[in-house]
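Example 3.
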Amino acid sequence: MNTFKWLLKREFWEHKGGFFWAPIVIGAIIVSITAVSLVFAVTGLRGGMEINGVPVSNLAQIVAPDQKAKFASLLFSMYKGLLVPFTVTLAACIFFFCAGALYDERKDRSVLFWKSLPVSDSATVLSKVAIAIGIAPLIALVIGTITAILAELLTMIAAAIAGVNIFGEVLSDPNTYLVPLQMLAMLPIYALWALPTIGWVLMISSWARAKPFLWAIGVPLMAGFLVSWAGKMFRIEGDLGWFWQNIIGRMLTSVVPGSWLIQQGHSLPTEETLRASSAVGEMLAQSLQLLAAPNIWIGAIAGSAMIYAAIRLRRWRDEG
Amino acid sequence: MSAIVSATGLTRRYGKTIAVDNIKLDIPAGRIVGLIGPNGSGKTTALKAVLGLSPFEGQLNVLGLDPRTHRDELMQQVCFIADVAILPRWLRVKDAVDFVAGVHPKFDRAKAERYLANTKLKPTMKVKEMSKGMVVQLHLALVMAIDAKLLVLDEPTLGLDILYRKQFYQHLLEEYFDQNKTIIITTHQVEEIEHILTDLIFIREGKIVLTASMDEVGIRFVEVMVPADKTELARALKPIDERQVFGKAVMLFDGVPRDALEALGEIRTPGVADIFVATMKGTYA
């Protein structure tokens, strides 16, 4: 019996829309927009696009042969930029998924069907965790990468038509192959980092009698405001910023891929830093530093404890 | 043969109300037990305790296991349709069959497909496109293909038309049931299941008021059509129920010797529904 495989399939049947079709649609939109703008740029329709006053259709005039490498690195920044819509959608989908994961089955009472099969509560809840921290991010990353490759290919073809052939530069740059792998290497860090939010929301999903989404968001926010208010009222010394960032922030925002970079105090990559072809490598290096600090581990332990609570709640929640 | 279900002092409280009150119960293997009671009598609560779905006080053993601590093991041997359980709206027929086949070692896929072939369900159909009856048909096809030692059916045929209900109970008796299996059924349509039951349990206000095999029921309960001149005589034997049919009194007796009753008038074997109504008199009063 390969129960876990079937549990994952089950989740995929239910949530194909958010975890599979949503990134596909985003990718399709990005590729189409890229294609259409390139056609306009290359054919010079409606005057065409201009870079520094020179029409793009005369690209060869502005990109000197020795600047080709720079032009190629511009393409890499595109890849990183393109992942942003995927990560934002992914974070929202995972949050909603967790909020409904253990609530919807109780609401429509199908939990009684699932519980009539020899599948333990732990296996059920853990399959949902695996979807949230592993499978969904992996799908988003793969589709995001395919999108970026397509968009880059289109751009390179358009550039070649306009007289600037950068295939050689792009294909010989090690970053072309490294960047997707570096992104992949960040997935385990994401999994650890996202655990407190995922554990918290799953626990609420298993507990709430109604409106799990509002509870999941409302309780930490109310707690935050109460603590802030009490701190002001009674002039209690303490670092409120720390509380908001490390408790409430971790309960609510850790599902956003890369949110650890802000937490670490690194500024989010700007357009400037993104343009450096090693930007993703730096992001990975910064992310790996995270593993040396207790923050991510304490969060992961707290998240696991809340997942355990979610399992116990599912076991004993009586919907009489 | 040890009991499949054995309970002593089984109690379940919701706050101050006692839903199941100190039940003692033994169900041996190879039985089809009808658990009959009015709404709110504690049937579903008792069954949920048996299935490890809700906490309880007292002793309860199902297939030798405590449902509180060994639920995962228990579910290898037990299957159920509980209290208008429904299937999730997004589930497709073929996915449902695949899933149960994937997680249940005792699921017979060919059997499920044979049951499904007798319905209007198509493999690609989603639950949200089905009528209420079709959802029940799918659920029953899945559950009937699982070779479980104990099958608990709480209102299994709700929403089905009479043709399908008859067919379902026929299947249950002829194809599913054997000496190693035990089935517990609750339903409001008692008359439809009485011919397949081997045992009867009446539950009222959380207490068991009758537990007997169908053979015992046939001996204990007798209905007599009493002519007008003998009514006083008959009433002296304390009937548990009395109604008027075509000017004659029809009286139901519990445990009165048959020969004593034969002298009073024409004797009939009462239906379970009649015994149930007589036993539950005053429940809603």
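The radius of gyration of chain A is 23 Å. The mean pLDDT of chain A is 85.
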